[in-house]
Design brief:
The structure is a single chain. This protein has 256 residues and is an alpha+beta fold. The radius of gyration is 22 Å and the shape is globular. The strands form two sheets. Strands 3-4-5-6 form a four-stranded antiparallel β-sheet, covered by helices on one side. The protein has a two-stranded antiparallel sheet with strand order 1-2. The protein has two domains: 33 residues; 210 residues, 60s Ribosomal Protein L30, Chain: A, CATH 3.30.1330.
Length: 256
């Protein structure tokens, strides 16, 4: 009888382990595929249906040194990581490119020498920053803390060069977005947008994707100046992601 009980117990443990394995596999696939065409807001599906091919403007990449090797981050690769061509990602790419050029000139920065702060919670800019700073690792995507918004005045990126204690704040000119852009984006998210409104929003988005990559940076962001900074405290690797997860979990628990 004791032997039979042990066999049943072993079978139960095996089933439990298989259950945990299946759960983690599904979770991993969900996170990994969240950047693929499956979850690309229907953009790729619509383009394929209409026979539209997105031509990504040819612009210089953002070059970084990662573990002693040069890595060229292109706009096309960033779109691929995100899942589709995206106006928000386009703006973030240009902002980061501009800021890095102001701080480093012709030098190629070490990835570990960069520290970047963002006030923008939207998926496109977050994916651009993840792709630049974490590499092509969809499972390591960053989630925003609860309450972080993304209005026209939140397109701000603070790029810091740790080795020289220099920084620059890159801020998109608010007028670069049409007055009704975010109103239409909200309706799109709520699925209340009309066909006529969608056509208008789509024109806005297409204009950003096709014209902003080659537009002079000063027309998008003005002429920001470098400044020196002092910094206190420490953010350990992975600490921010861990704390954000805790905040989101707590917010969900109390029903915010």
């Amino acid at each position: 009888m004791k032997g039979i009980k042990n066999v049943k117990k072993d079978k139960g443990n095996i089933k439990m382990k298989r259950g945990f394995l299946l759960f983690f596999l599904v979770a991993f696939l969900f996170v990994s595929l969240s950047h693929s065409n499956v979850f690309a807001h229907g953009c790729n599906k619509c383009h394929k249906k209409e026979g539209v091919k997105v031509e990504v403007p040819a612009i210089p990449p953002i070059n970084l040194m990662v573990d002693g090797k040069k890595r060229a981050v292109t706009l096309a690769d960033a779109f691929k990581f995100h899942g589709h061509a995206c106006p928000g990602l386009t703006i973030a790419f240009r902002a980061l490119q501009y800021g890095i050029n102001l701080l480093y000139g012709s030098e190629i920065p070490e990835q570990s020498d960069l520290l970047i702060f963002s006030r923008m919670a939207r998926c496109g800019p977050k994916d651009m920053l993840d792709f630049l700073m974490k590499g092509n690792r969809p499972s390591k995507r960053t989630w925003p803390p609860v309450g972080m918004k993304g209005s026209r005045r939140d397109w701000v990126f603070v790029i810091m060069r740790k080795s020289t204690c220099e920084a620059v704040t890159i801020r998109l000119k608010p007028e670069r977005f049409p007055k009704d852009f975010f109103k239409l984006k909200k309706r799109q998210k709520e699925k209340t947008i009309t066909p006529k409104e969608w056509e208008k929003l789509h024109t806005y988005m297409k204009d950003i994707i096709l014209t902003y990559p080659t537009m002079p940076a000063e027309e998008l962001f003005g002429k920001p100046r470098k400044y020196r900074f002092l910094c206190w405290g420490t953010i350990l690797p992975g600490e921010m992601d861990k704390r954000i997860r805790q905040l989101r979990k707590e917010s969900k628990r109390i029903g915010r």
